[in-house]
Amino acid sequence: MLAKRIIPCLDIRDGKVVKGVKFLNIQEVGDPVEMGSKYSDDGADELVYLDITASHENRKLFARLVKDISRYLNIPFTVGGGINELRDAEILLNAGADKLSINTSAVKGPELINQIAENFGSQFVVVAIDAQLKDNKWTVFINGGRIASDKELFSWAKEIEERGAGEILFTSMNHDGTKNGFACEALATLSESLSIPVIASGGAGEMEHFSEVFTRGKADAGLAASIFHFNEISIPQLKQYLIEKNVPVRV
Fold this sequence. Notes:
- The protein has one domain (5-244): TIM Barrel (Alpha-Beta Barrel).
- 38% of the residues lie in helices and 28% in strands.
- The chain is an alpha/beta fold.
- A hairpin with a 2-residue loop joins strand 7 and strand 8.
């Protein structure tokens, strides 16, 4: 079994790391370069930086921030937000990003997945999916979880894979920020139906939730924000716990 990855997620707004609950009640929590460097030292396997207020005006600011981040990190990091065309992807990769995450732009124009994969390689393409379970159906949302799309989670994930993406980052909006555990049933279904890695996001609150998402949920990586940002769980502590539970992790 491949080693499972632990990935802190840092949401960026106006150059600062912020965090909310169920995509609402946003509060500032720190500096993205300082926090990323600490997570790297603590043993995080990767990082994800998402510009949650991405806009044309903010894109240059984010590219400069990505350059700063790349100077201080020695682990891979993914960036997302405001990637609407091939040129946006090129700018962020040239700034030092290891991978790109696209979400709303992929839903609105799925051919962007093909374009980035064909020009830079599938390994650079992470497609994020924000979905909400209601009436036994997982509906994909866009624009930071504000607008429902016409796509359904599992069929959209399959299309993403077929278009050449290298990974999927699935966030359950029902679980995000609640600290009640990941959406393991949906994650297991995704993992069993796809041949590309699935990153689990939304709901981490205890170390047991990571053990559960890697076993019952069959996820390849676990992503979390607030439990790491607010020092509720340390990454070394989490990895030691997972080792004791016979979950393979990098140390």
